[in-house]
Design a protein that fits this description.
Elements (H helix, E strand, L loop, with lengths): L3 H4 L3 H11 L3 E2 L5 E4 L5 E2 L5 E2 L8 E10 L6 E9 L9 H12 L11 E4 L2 H7 L3 E6 L15 E7 L11 H9 L4
Parallel strand pairs: 2-7, 7-8
Antiparallel strand pairs: 1-2, 3-4, 5-6, 8-9
Helix pairs in contact: 2-3
Length: 182
């Protein structure tokens, strides 16, 4: 049975999701990934993961932190928030749910095939797991290595632990991450 929000999706949106899902790649360790950035990622197994065409965006929202009593200087923090704008008629969270549903139709969300959404640091802060950022290998880490020459690790991704995202507890995320990769 499909999730309720998919019942109302138009045929046009369903076709868009299929187009994005066709960009899912399987890494040598069996992990499924979809790239929601504008960058091409090459993993250490030489799997090339091209952008899927949907950018999982986030906005930075300014919050007043405090004002210096001495000179009146104001300090602010920047907090990532899910982008409130639709892209091809889908919000970011709907996109994530629709891709998961496409990969594992009818499954309960915590029983789906593992799939990671490659995104920017700001997006992982805003959406939480399974939105992750790939980690370059030690040899290609650093600002001096051009993006086109970087190689990403197969077994190391950056997440925001404070915001569990779609998996509500750390044990659920660990259980999910340790489930069969193939």
């Amino acid at each position: 049975m499909r999730r309720a929000f998919n019942h109302s999706m138009s045929q046009n949106i369903t076709e868009e999701i299929k187009k994005y899902a066709n960009k899912i790649k399987k890494l040598a360790n069996g992990m499924l990934v979809i790239n929601t950035t504008p960058h091409i990622y090459v993993f250490e197994d030489n799997t090339v993961v091209e952008p899927c065409g949907y950018l999982l965006n986030a906005d930075l929202v300014e919050s007043h932190y405090g004002t210096s009593e001495i000179d009146g200087i104001e300090f602010f923090t920047l907090n990532p928030k899910q982008n409130p704008h639709k892209q091809n008629e889908l919000y970011g969270g709907q996109f994530i749910q629709a891709i998961v549903e496409e990969v594992s139709p009818g499954a309960k969300f915590d029983e789906t095939k593992p799939i990671l959404f490659l995104a920017s640091k700001i997006a992982i802060e805003a959406y939480g797991f399974p939105v992750v950022m790939p980690t370059p290998t030690a040899e290609t880490l650093g600002r001096t290595t051009p993006h086109s020459e970087k190689r990403m690790q197969l077994n190391k991704f950056i997440i925001r632990d404070e915001n569990p995202g779609f998996y509500t507890t750390k044990s659920q995320r660990t259980c999910w991450a340790n489930s069969g990769w193939s």
